[in-house]
């Protein structure tokens, strides 16, 4: 089969690799009909190379049809399914508490990490990823979400990651109807977090330096702001001087405006892998511009929700400010299955209340993945969300 493989920093290729096979009775194999490039895939492309091995299959946002089903998978050949990016058993102590991204059966204990993820480095189990023509799905008796036949892939695909991640981000921000929410970063997660905030009754401010992203958000009623030194003051001016009740940081470790940390990321990427891993694990720092802006902006007693991925173990935080402002922080990988019951009716609603029809900017054959990654990373051609077609 064809698959997108990691080959080095800023270097992915499309290769022929062996087809996956059933390994456990509750496995399934799906033929992938759509698979998206996630913003967090760019961390593998740019920063997390020390945890990757040449030939790793990447990607974690798939949907497709079951072509093989293990006897205890609960699936049948022909089922149309979306596959969450987190791999969870559904029945352990953590899963019973709907903390599926912390599943005790699939935790990567040798790395001190939570549940295994598809296509996401040694940190999360080096599980073969979903940017491929076929995908082996472990714990298929719990993970896959069966969907209907009438709607196109893109109405369901984002249940794999984008929508649950954005929904959790807004819920963690604890904003009530009539309150205010700011979203830093209007990539795919930020776009949907902003729209979900509006859907749940908040007034939403979206901050991003890229005009195409601001334009997309504004089409859905988000009040948009460029990102510059006066942006936070402008938002405080329209929130009675306090700042918003909640802030979602949908940017993460590679925020613009962090030159020292950017240089550190570059240096880590150039070191031999064992040295790079050691540096990340003991002295790694993130590019924290978006987080620092969030801390500055949120009102006193407000909540910051982190959905952007952070990976540094030595990232400095302004603890005096956090304590003095009585800021609450919530964060973590999305517990995808915890939110599906809320989201599935919305993506199937003919009125498309979250505007899922207006997110994908590029649908491309899988063979174009190297060019697609470059375009997405450099934010050219108005690229906001890329979906790859493995069967084209």
Describe this structure in words.
- The protein is an alpha/beta fold and 392 residues long.
- The protein has two domains: 175 residues, Medium-chain alcohol dehydrogenases, catalytic domain (Quinone Oxidoreductase, Chain A, domain 1), CATH 3.90.180; 169 residues, 3-Layer(aba) Sandwich (Rossmann fold), CATH 3.40.50.720.
- Helix content is 29%, strand content 20%.
- The chain is built from 13 helices and 17 strands.
- The strands form four sheets. Strands 3, 4, 5, 8, 9, 16 and 17 form a seven-stranded mixed beta sheet that branches.
- A hairpin with a 4-residue loop joins strand 6 and strand 7.
- Helix 4 crosses helix 12.
- The radius of gyration is 20 Å and the shape is globular.
- The two termini are 13 Å apart.
- Its EC number is 1.2.98.1.
- Keywords: Metal-binding, Oxidoreductase, Zinc.
- This is Formaldehyde dismutase.
What's the quick description here?
By secondary structure, the protein is an alpha/beta fold. It has helices at 41-46, 93-96, 153-157, 162-173, 188-199, 211-218, 231-237, 259-270, 273-283, 289-297, 319-324, 336-348, 369-378, and strands at residues 2-8, 11-16, 28-37, 62-69, 80-82, 107-108, 113-115, 134-137, 145-146, 180-184, 203-207, 223-225, 246-249, 303-306, 328-331, 362-365, 386-389.
